[in-house]
């Protein structure tokens, strides 16, 4: 029995499920497995809020159609939660609590037996307060349970023909705001405008970190040389300024996912020794 077969069997044992579905590769793989294992008894649900980047919902719709799972949306109100707006290091806990509150209610109302997420084995090594919210809501993580990490996730997604197999990670827009800086709709919209403007220039893997009047651009290693070149720098700066930033900086080191958590998780590791 292959690892994919084992994952399908685990999900099939649940009888029915709701998948917390962002359209990223992790949740897309779980949704594809759920569709294969449970058919019409599986439902993918995408949360819509001001923190969802432009294009992500359309991408989720397209993935759901390709993998053959029923797909719905809900509206979440994480910005109504003071803990989320305050943006301490547990912001994701408040975000995921809002999400799982809504999804759990939907599952109970419609008679679905389980709530699934796309958390994978590599998530355990990072600062993930959202996993605590998931535990409180009884969320099942099939990939995490099976010890499947990101490389295997992408490999399995390719084997199953999941269209987001190579999709770069795209966490919520609030992840661009340093801890301690309040989250509000205007800031999220400004970040989104800046990132959309950069994508129109052809950049694919990027973040615009929000530091008040300064927008700090981080780009993938293979895209960074173009942005730092004499011909590339001015268009990048103009794109970010068009979103309302008075100052623009282009990071000279390549983008690295989870960089805002890096120093914090390092301190946690030291303190737990």
Would you write up a description of this structure?
By secondary structure, this protein is an alpha/beta fold. It folds into two domains: 3-159, HUPs (Rossmann fold, 3-Layer(aba) Sandwich); 184-260, Alpha-Beta Plaits (2-Layer Sandwich), CATH 3.30.70. Helix content is 47%, strand content 13%. The strands form two sheets. Strands 3-2-1-4 form a four-stranded parallel sheet, sandwiched between helices. Strands 5-6-7 form a three-stranded mixed sheet. Strand 1 (17-20), helix 2 (25-38) and strand 2 (42-48) form a beta-alpha-beta unit. It is globular.
Give the helices and strands, then pairings:
Elements: H1 3-12, E1 17-20, H2 25-38, E2 42-48, H3 56-67, E3 70-75, H4 82-86, H5 91-110, E4 114-116, H6 130-136, H7 142-145, H8 150-159, H9 185-200, E5 206-211, E6 214-219, H10 224-228, H11 230-241, E7 247-250, H12 259-271
Helix pairs in contact: 1-2, 2-3, 2-8, 5-6, 9-11
Question: Keywords for this structure?
Answer:
273 residues, single chain, 3-stranded mixed β-sheet, alpha/beta, Rossmann fold, 4-stranded parallel β-sheet, 47% helix, disordered C terminus, 12 helices, 13% strand, Alpha-Beta Plaits
**Fourth-tier CATH superfamily name of the largest domain:** HUPs
Helix content: 40-55%
Q: Mean of the pLDDT scores?
A: 93
Number of helices: 12
Indicate the overall shape.
globular
Number of DSSP strand runs: 7
Strand order of the largest sheet: 3-2-1-4
Q: Which architecture of the largest domain would the CATH scheme give at its second level? A: 3-Layer(aba) Sandwich
CATH topological fold name of the largest domain:
Rossmann fold
Query: Over all CA atoms, what is the radius of gyration?
Result: 19 Å
Based on helices, strands and strand pairing, what is the structural class?
Answer: alpha/beta
Strand content: 5-15%
Oligomer: single chain
For the record, the count of structural domains works out to 2
Order of secondary-structure elements:
HEHEHEHHEHHHHEEHHEH
Give the CA-CA distance, first to last residue.
40 Å
**What composes the largest sheet?**
4 strands, parallel
- The low-confidence parts are 263-273
Classified by CATH, the class of the largest domain is Alpha Beta
């Amino acid at each position: 029995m292959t690892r994919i077969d084992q994952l399908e069997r685990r999900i099939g044992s649940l009888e029915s499920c709701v998948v917390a579905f962002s359209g990223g590769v992790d949740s897309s793989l779980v949704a594809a497995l759920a569709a294969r294992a449970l058919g019409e008894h599986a439902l993918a649900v995408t949360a819509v809020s001001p923190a969802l980047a432009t294009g992500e919902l359309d991408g989720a719709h397209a993935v759901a159609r390709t993998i053959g799972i029923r797909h719905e949306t809900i509206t979440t109100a994480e910005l109504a939660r003071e803990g989320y707006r305050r943006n301490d290091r547990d912001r994701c806990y408040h975000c995921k609590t809002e999400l799982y509150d809504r999804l759990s209610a939907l599952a109970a109302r419609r008679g679905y037996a389980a709530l699934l997420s796309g958390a994978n084995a590599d998530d355990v090594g990072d600062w993930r307060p959202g996993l605590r919210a998931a535990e409180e809501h009884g969320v099942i993580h099939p990939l995490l349970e099976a010890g499947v990490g990101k490389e295997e996730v992408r490999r399995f997604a390719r084997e199953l023909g999941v269209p987001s197999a190579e999709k770069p990670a795209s966490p919520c827009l609030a992840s661009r705001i340093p801890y301690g800086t309040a989250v509000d709709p205007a800031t999220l919209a400004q970040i989104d405008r800046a990132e959309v403007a950069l994508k129109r220039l052809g950049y694919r893997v990027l973040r615009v970190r929000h530091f008040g009047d300064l927008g700090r651009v981080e780009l993938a290693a293979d895209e960074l040389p173009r942005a730092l070149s004499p011909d590339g720098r001015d268009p990048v700066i103009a794109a970010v300024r068009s979103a309302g930033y008075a100052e623009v900086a282009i990071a000279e080191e390549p983008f690295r996912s989870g960089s805002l958590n890096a120093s914090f998780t390092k301190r946690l590791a030291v303190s737990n020794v």
